[in-house]
Amino acid sequence: MKLLIAFVFIILLIALVGTLMVTRKTDEKYSETAKKNTANLTLIYVAVIFLSTIALGVYISFSG
Which residue ranges run through the membrane (predicted)? Predict the structure, then answer.
């Protein structure tokens, strides 16, 4: 259980660092690419939620 909690915190830390790295860059053409960025971000969130749900199911099935 402690290993899984540590794994979650590592993922959160990587996500935070990645987000901060992306926000430092300026993009003059942001308004032109906003739709593509939003679509990509939505796809990433869907994939992460899907994989997290699977991981939770696997964890629950093996812990019981």
Answer: 43-62
Tokens 């679509």 correspond to 39
Query: What type of residue sits at position 9?
Result: F
Q: How far is CA 21 from CA 2, 17, 37, 41, in A?
A: 29, 6, 16, 15
Of the chain, the percentage scoring pLDDT greater than 90 comes to 55
Full-model pTM? 0.49
- In whole angstroms, give the CA distance from residue 39 to residue 33: 10
Q: What is the largest CA-CA distance in the chain?
A: 53
Quick check: 62 and 3 in contact, CB under 8 A?
A: no
